[in-house]
Amino acid sequence: MFGLYPVNKGTVYSEEEERLILETSQALQTIFLANPGTSLLEEDFESRCEAIEDLSERLIEIYDMENVNIIVTDDPEIFSDESGLHFGTTVYPGTIYINANILRLDDPVMLEHIVSTVIHELRHVMQYQIMTLKKTYGVPYQRRSLWRYNITHYISCSEDFEGYRKQAIEEDARNFTNRIWQTVYKRHVK
Asked: What are phi and psi of 23, to 5 degrees?
């Protein structure tokens, strides 16, 4: 996963977001004593699912979220070739589906990507809460407004992959996730 997405150093996070980045990083270091992909590789499938659920519950607690459900599933209706979904997806306002088939793979890079997906998808739930003013996490009006526009004009990855990647809410979720990895490993994420 490292280096998959660049970190936009120009992104200025609020104090509350910076605190969440730090606490998420600490949680990752506590739950996964080594690299998450390597740690998960040592576990059987059921334990991998439990670890993802435990991580999710811990992050939901850190982010002070309510009514968020993380579902680890291999449901072919959710994760099919036609859907364009591979790792996970969020159904607003707070259900996140994580692809159990990835947790069956004995590939530490793919397993680490699932951990990143949990963080990324929880960031989308956080964005939704921010956009609806349920909890703003100190995010300024300009960014909230941009996200609101983006969500009402959302481009799915199956429609236009490049357009999907360039959306403000997707760029933010990737950047937020990679800032966490940068903090965990105390090195630059390319």
From this structure: -65, -35
CB 68 within 8 A of CB 94: yes
For 70-102, write each residue's pLDDT tens digit.
999 888 888 876 544 577 777 767 889 899 989
Q: How far apart are the two ends of the chain, measured CA to CA in Å? A: 10
User: Could you tell me which of 142, 114, 139 has the C-alpha nearest to residue 56?
Assistant: 114
Q: What is the DSSP letter of 98?
A: E
Alpha carbon distance 129, 20 (integer Å): 15
Closest alpha carbon to 56 in 84, 87, 97: 97
Chain centroid to Cα 145, Å, comes to 21
Name the E strands within 12-133. 69-73, 88-91, 95-99
Output the pLDDT for position 65. Answer: 93
Helix (H, G, I), strand (E, B) or coil at 7: coil
Neighbouring CB atoms inside 10 A of 67's CB total 9
Q: What is the 3 state secondary structure string of 116-183? A: HHHHHHHHHHHHHHHHCCCCCCCCCHHHHHHHHHHHHCCCCCCCCHHHHHHCHHHHHHHHHHHHHHHH
Q: What is the DSSP letter of 153?
A: T
